[in-house]
């Protein structure tokens, strides 16, 4: 409530299924009246951690004194975990077809179709689908 000043909905999820108890805090990006957006300021994670530590100390709970920084950026970590998107796979197929140096656009489209990409001319713009 202190961080959101009562203007944003939020959920605090406490995990007790690991060897350490920890929280995840999810804050709705829009205010309750849907008029403004939450501004995630630089260092907001540290501000939330300080608020959380103060609250824990007030209630006699332990805190992490010297938290170790994460080993890698969350986006990098997720990149190692998730499957490539359709757009990414389509981009790779187009790049592979272009590396074969087709003589014209028609030959490029034939190479894409041979690679399993559906080429659709029905509408105003050309569309590709894996």
Describe this structure in words.
The strands form two sheets. Strands 1-2 form a two-stranded antiparallel ribbon. Helices cover 36% and strands 18% of the residues. It has helices at 44-58, 74-81, 86-99, 105-114; strands spanning 8-15, 22-31, 118-120, 127-129. The longest helix has 15 residues, at 44-58. It folds into two domains: 2-59, no CATH class; 83-129, no CATH class.
Fold blueprint:
Elements: E1 8-15, E2 22-31, H1 44-58, H2 74-81, H3 86-99, H4 105-114, E3 118-120, E4 127-129
Antiparallel strand pairs: 1-2, 3-4
The number of E-state strands comes to 4
The fraction of residues in strands falls at 15-25%
- Number of separate helices: 4
- Low-confidence stretches are none
Strand order of the largest sheet: 1-2
Radius of gyration: 25 Å
Order of helices and strands: EEHHHHEE
Largest sheet: 2 strands, antiparallel
* Helical content band: 25-40%
The whole-number mean of residue pLDDT values reads: 85
Q: Write down the domain tally.
A: 2
Distance between the termini: 47 Å
């Amino acid at each position: 409530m202190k961080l959101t000043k009562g203007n944003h909905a939020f959920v605090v999820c406490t995990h007790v299924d690991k060897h350490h108890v920890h929280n995840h805090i999810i804050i709705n990006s829009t205010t309750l009246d849907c008029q403004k957006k939450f501004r995630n300021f630089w260092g907001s994670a540290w501000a939330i951690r300080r608020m959380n530590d103060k609250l824990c100390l007030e209630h006699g709970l332990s805190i992490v004194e010297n938290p170790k920084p994460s080993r890698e950026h969350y986006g990098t970590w997720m990149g190692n975990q998730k499957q490539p998107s359709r757009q990414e796979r389509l981009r790779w197929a187009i790049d592979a077809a272009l590396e074969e140096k087709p003589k014209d656009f028609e030959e490029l489209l034939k190479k894409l179709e041979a690679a399993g990409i559906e080429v659709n001319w029905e509408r105003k713009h050309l569309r590709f689908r894996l």
